Amino acid sequence: MTNQFKLSLTVNGNRYEREIEPRLLLSDFLRHELGMTGTHVGCEHGVCGACTVLLDGDPVRSCLMFAVQAHGHEVITVEGLGSIDDLHPIQQAFWEAHGLQCGFCTPGFLTTLVPFLEENPNPTEEEIRDAISGNLCRCTGYENIVKSVKLAAEKMRA
Amino acid sequence: MKPPPFEYCAPTTVDEALEHLAEHGYDAKPLAGGQSLIPMMNFRLAQPAVLVDLNSIADLSFIRPTDDGGLSIGAMTRHKMVEKDPLVAEHAPLIYETMPKIATSQIRSRGTFGGSLAHADPSAELVCVSVALDGEFKVVNKQGERWVPAKDFFLGLFTSVMEPEDLLVEIKLPPFPERTGWSLMEIARRPHDFCLIGVAAVLTLDDKEQCQDVKLVYLSAGDGPMEAHQAAKVLKGQAVTAEAIQAAAETAASEDIDPSSDIHATADFRRHLAKVLTRRALEEALGRAKGK
């Protein structure tokens, strides 16, 4: 039984150790403890997708995990996909195809789409729309997001 | 909002977990995938004083065929694992069809087979389908273990037969008899949302292609999985014609379910949807039963 937990995990390839309360959500740990504010908090109950990160390669809702549950695991956030000088093809594609406006939903889309495109290198439009069912966007109407994904797939196939 | 403080433990064996649950009783809650419990804790609708995290108990995650040709699934098996396993496609095709309909891929990365069942949400696909499949649930505590048939497991809204010291560890699914077809039909305004209403159908034909047995179970149609006993009576022993299907659908919608009205749909609309989905589900199940 503990009220303070010695957490040790890898985020974007780097090891971090912190002492935290068990009730601290993974989303809030990433944002407040590690200062990685790329992961956004929208609904806090798992439906909007803005908080999506990769846990051991799988897309998960970081608002529906306690940080202590990531002990010993590997997390990748949007910050880990690429850098300003070296964008991930999917980031490049979203930029070129205007797949974002305010950008609030975008990190969640990107982390969701990276494993999707790795497993489905040539998706149909229907498959893309199904894959993004768990991510809500209030700005774009999804049209340019779908175009961005198609472009990303092209870039990743090359 | 954020959850209030709680004590946390992460046992690595079932026995350890049972010790914690026995010690804390109503103060403790097991944490499986967390995709239902953590939202409730974020809203402070649930405020367990002690959280027993089951995610480090490797023994609870498995998918194995049983001797009778069915399937056995460990309670902590992630939905994503069940979704992708060829054993599930082969031995439990209705489960295989159900998995991609559960929420979204991100939820299925963490959500667990047993966690969904233990949570006993009447809008959960697995709650409904496990009853349609005559599943059996293994429940253990410090004193021993017992097997509970799915139809006896669910008592009401978010309520099962489990006591605070109990843990669901395994789910057994029997194989389909010959000439059995299946279907799961749901309808939601946005794909992957909680559905307005849904139905699981399992239909077994006799050697004259008449209905030998049928199970129709509904989700989001009442306080728990709603089994349509009256509709089943209408079909059993009959030729499965379009008229018989329609009669069963109408009976189910008017007599067997108890949907409520909310901001998403009225009870009447849900009954109408139930009628339409039942017809479609029985047609699909019939086609599959004949195809075998």
Task: Characterise this structure.
The complex is a heterodimer of chains A (158) and B (292). Helices cover 33% and strands 16% of the residues of chain A. Chain A has 158 residues and is of the alpha+beta class. A 5-stranded mixed sheet of chain A has the order 2-1-5-3-4, covered by helices on one side. In chain A, a hairpin with a 2-residue loop joins strand 1 and strand 2 (14-20). In chain A, helix 2 (89-96) packs across helix 5. The model of chain A has no long low-confidence stretch (mean pLDDT 96). Chain B has 12 helices and 14 strands. Chain B is globular, with a radius of gyration of 19 Å. The N and C termini of chain B lie far apart (52 Å). The chains are: A alpha+beta (158), B alpha+beta (292). The interface between A and B is medium-sized, with 32 and 31 residues.
Instruction: Give me the side-by-side strand order of the main sheet of chain A.
Output: 2-1-5-3-4
Structural class assignment of chain B: alpha+beta
Quaternary state of the chains:
heterodimer
Helical proportion of chain A, percent range: 25-40%
Arithmetic mean of pLDDT of chain B: 97
* Structural class by SSE content of chain A: alpha+beta
Number of discrete helical segments of chain A: 5
Mean pLDDT of chain A, to the nearest integer, reads 96
Unreliable residue stretches of chain A: none
**What's the main sheet of chain A like?**
5 strands, mixed
The secondary-structure element order of chain B is EHEHEEEHHHHHHEEHEEEEEEEHHH
Distance between the termini of chain B: 52 Å
Can you describe this structure in just a few lines?
The complex is a heterodimer of chains A (158) and B (292). Chain A has 158 residues and is an alpha+beta fold.
